[in-house]
Design goal:
Elements lengths: L1 E3 L2 H9 L5 E6 L5 H13 L2 E6 L19 H10 L4 E3 L3 H4 L18 H4 L3 H16 L3 E5 L3 H13 L5 E5 L19 H6 L1 H15 L5 H11 L5 E9 L13 E8 L4 E7 L1
Parallel strand pairs: 1-4, 2-3, 2-5, 3-4, 5-6
Antiparallel strand pairs: 7-8, 8-9
Bound molecules: pantoate (PAF).
Pantoate (PAF) binds next to strand 2 and helix 6.
């Protein structure tokens, strides 16, 4: 595996490779969730590029940019063992200039749910993903469904700007007890780790209700909120269609259930696609 830190070195490394490029963008602190993306990229492409870059423009003032877990050496080892060809770990200077041209998230679906709670987050996320897709020349890029809105906005950006890349949505990876994997889970102490299960359990309670025939969104939200009583603060419980617009009745095949809640220090998110 080649480790490259500059754009020039990335372009040189790419010239030494041939064939379709599977790209997995990450912010590091790699876990099984990232590994599942890398494995899928490895299975479907001749070349696999992973990026590790804690992107400052997608963190809001007061968020955990400085504290975000950074484990460069361990992450590089994980990528190497997983068969990654090129690991791109640029500096901020490589990726940004001052007074940049920016990409804006769309007014409706970019400013609801995560976008409403973290205004500006999606602008920064789209900006870096656009740069990384262009730099890597990815044939396919792999994103987890845990960041459901992020995934939908990236798909929209690819459509809007006619980017020549296939976006591959990948399933959420969970611990055996149901907790969705996240780099921010490392912030949880033992009690918080246990309480964090209320996110996935609220989704399970909702899907149980739906399986027994309930379709009314108010009834399902009320049940989810009961289970989420263990959270320190619930930011939202949302039941939306594939465009992230609120609905009144669940439709199998067209609904996403989403939750965001604070458990101790981290703010965690989870969702289920029906
Ligand atoms: O999901 C993430 O880790 C980040 O938002 C991404 C896609 C790597 C962009 O910084």
């Amino acid at each position: 595996m080649e480790i490259v830190r500059t754009i020039e070195a990335l372009q040189e490394a790419k010239q030494r490779q041939q064939g379709s490029i599977g790209f997995v963008p990450t912010m590091g602190a790699l876990h099984e969730g990232h590994l599942s993306l890398i494995r899928q990229a490895r299975a479907e492409n001749e070349v696999v590029i992973v990026s590790i870059f804690v992107n400052p423009t997608q963190f809001l003032e007061g968020e955990d940019l400085d504290a975000y877990p950074r484990r460069e050496a361990a992450d590089a080892k994980i990528c190497d063992v997983a068969g990654v060809d090129v690991l791109f770990m640029p500096t901020i200077d490589q990726m940004y200039e001052s007074d940049e041209l920016c990409i804006g998230a769309p007014a409706k679906r970019g400013y609801t749910l995560e976008g409403a709670k973290r205004p500006g987050h999606f602008d920064g996320m789209l900006q870096i993903v656009m740069k990384l897709l262009n730099l890597t020349g990815a044939t396919r890029a792999y994103f987890g469904k845990k960041d459901a809105q992020q995934l939908a906005l990236i798909q929209q950006m690819v459509r809007t700007y006619f980017l020549p890349v296939e976006i591959v949505p990948c399933p959420i990876v969970r611990d055996a007890d149901g907790l969705a994997l996240s780099s921010r889970n490392t912030y949880l102490d033992a009690d918080e780790r246990q309480r964090a299960l209320c996110l996935s359990r609220s989704l399970k309670a909702a899907t149980d209700l739906i399986a027994s025939g309930t379709r009314d969104v108010t009834t399902i939200r009320t049940r989810m909120l009961e289970v989420l009583a263990l959270a320190d603060r619930v930011e939202y419980v949302a039941i939306v269609d594939r465009a992230f617009l609120p609905i009144e009745t669940v439709e199998i095949g067209g609904t996403i259930l989403l939750v965001a809640a604070w458990i101790g220090r981290p703010r965690l998110i989870d969702n289920v696609w029906l």
